[in-house]
Every structure is written in C-alpha cells, then in structure tokens.
Amino acid sequence: MNRTKQLHDIGQSLWVDNITRTMLDDGTLERYIAEFSVTGLTSNPTIFDKAIGSGNAYDEQIAELSEQGLQGEVLFFELALTDLRRAAQMFRGVHERTTIDGRVSLEVSPKLADDAQASIKQAAELYGRAEENTYIKIPGTEAGRKAIEETIYAGIPVNVTLLFSTEHYLAAADAYMRGLERRVEAGLNPDVASVASLFVSRWDGAVTETVPDELRNKLGIAVGKRAYAAYREVLASDRAMRLRNEGAKAQRLLWASTGTKDPDASDVLYIEALVSPFTVSTMPETTLNAFADHGEVGETLPVDGGDAEETLKAFNDAGIDTDALAAKLQHDGAEAFSNSWHDMLETLAKQHQAV
C-alpha cells in the first residue's frame, strides 16, 4: 500500500496546498487524486500571486477579461474562480461520496481582515459564483470570527484560516457552532461544513535562532498536539453532540503550513508528526511528493496531547512567550497575505496595461 493511502485509510484527509492553471491542464491534479488519495485543495493569496506571476498560462484569459474592462480585484477573482471551479469539478465524485471532503478553498480579500461586514458580503458574493463544494476562507481574527458566525449562519462553508494556537482554534470553533445554533433556532438545516486551519511550521521558523538545539523544530508540533487535545474535547462536548443530533457535521481541524522550513530537518517532519484521524493535512506539492516517496506512517496523535504541555513549558522556560508569539504570528500572517495580495494586483495591473 502506498504511503499516502495509508494516511487516508487512517482517517486523515490529504489536500494539496497549491493551485496553478498548469497543474489543471497537464493532469497533475488528476494524478494526485488517483495516485496519492488527495481529496481536496487549498489556496491563498501567496499561491495565486506565484501562479499568475509565473509563466504565461493566464495570459489569454487576462487579455479576454481586460478587453471586457475587468481589472484589479474583479479580474483576479474571475481568474481564481475559473481555476477553482475546474478543480472543484475534479473533486466532485469525492464530494458526493463523502460530503465532508472533495472541496477547494478561496480566500476573501486580505484587505478585509478587520472588516467583518465587508467580509460577510464578499464571502456571499464569491460563494454565489463558485461550485457548491467550495470553502470560503476567512481569517480567525477578532473581526473574522464575527464574519465566520454570520457566513455559517448564511449556509456558506467556511475554512477558518490563520489560526496559530489552541485559543485561536477554540474561538473559531465557538464562532462556527454559534452560526449552526442560530440555524437550528431559525429552523434551517445546520449541515454546513467547516474546517479550522492551524498553522504549524511558522512557529519553528520564528524561534529557530533563539532556542537551544534540543528544542529546534519541536514547537510547532507541540502546539499542534495541544490543539488536537482541545479539538477532541470539542468533538466530544455536549454542545457539539446536540448539534450533531440536529443534523450538523463536526468542524474538522486542518493542519496548515506543513512544509518544513529548516533545510536540516526532515522534509516530511510535520506530516509524520501529526498523523491523526478525522483531521485534514494540507501539503505543498513538494511535501506531498516527498511523503509519497519516503514518508512513514507511525503512531497517531495521543488524544490527550501527549507531551505537549511538557514541551511548551520547556519553550517558555527558554524565554519564549508562546501566547505573545501566537498573536504575533497571526498578525504577521495576515500582513504577509496582504503583501502577496498587493504584489499580485500589481502583476495583474502590468499585464492589463500590456494588453
């Protein structure tokens, strides 16, 4: 049995964290689905910035849309939706079979990170133009949580992004369940899907130069273990079970930022460390291919978080304020996506002018 199918059979969904028009055109995504048990796809502004800015795969459509007067964000979302509708159709069979899988993700504009009402409006607009098996990505910031609740209440699937800690996850889970509870109260179907994306490798990238060697590349995994313990408690909670009795599905925890940043560490470090049923692991293409080639499926994560608290204490004893770092990572992540967004719009503007 191949390695990726082993992960899939344990109950962990494998998604690829990338989309380009080339991988849609040349059969790469279809191969991932057939050979690597890939059952979903995620995107973000950085991914689209690289995809649109590299090569000429988008030139023809940019020319056509530019002639129609489209530019800026309007032009971008048309390009992105074209790709994501195609990818969603490739996952249609998986989605019809499982309902919780076979999905793609599209993020609202990073410029709206602090504007709940504008995020709510844009989420509805984008979902109205997307395939049914599409998640709208909304950051788990303070403003984002309000947008998450309202978007779930509106019946729109949400991928909560930019979560970095157990506290971030729990706040996102609460926003999700509030939206579902309001649907139940209103007599609406609460079967609205969601995933909560916890970013992992960025923790280690932030502290690699400041911690002892024995703690290198251990912080992200410890944060993941702690969040997984909280996730399992949420799944077993009375609140979650009442919602399931009404027909809701549980929000799944998703491991994001799983590519190894340290060149001296294993290129499948986080995939192997975060094997866990009823979660999603979304991987950059290089990580997916590396795991398919030489990854090993070992023990699944302990339900109680295992040694997470002991490891996190060691980091705090070493002078790392993990609470403050979680807030900084979320802020920096939102800023990085915003920068990629501006870079991508500048690229589009240049191509628009060229046309």
Describe the protein's architecture and organization.
The chain has 355 residues and is an alpha/beta fold. It has a single domain (3-354), classed as Aldolase class I (TIM Barrel, Alpha-Beta Barrel). It contains 17 helices and eight strands. Strands 1-2-3-4-5-6-7-8 form an eight-stranded parallel β-barrel, surrounded by eleven helices. Strand 3, helix 8 and strand 4 (134-139) form a beta-alpha-beta unit. Helix 10 runs parallel beside helix 12 and helix 11 packs antiparallel against helix 12 (219-235).
What is the alpha-carbon Rg in Å? 20 Å
Written as H for each helix and E for each strand, in order along the chain, the element string is HEHHEHHHHEHEHEHEHHHEHEHHH
Number of domains in the coordinates? 1
Strand order of the largest sheet: 1-2-3-4-5-6-7-8
The gist of it:
By secondary structure, the protein is of the alpha/beta class. It has helices at residues 3-10, 21-25, 28-36, 45-53, 59-67, 72-90, 92-98, 116-129, 142-153, 166-185, 201-207, 219-235, 238-245, 269-273, 285-294, 308-317, 322-354; strands at residues 13-16, 38-41, 103-107, 134-139, 158-163, 194-199, 252-256, 279-283.
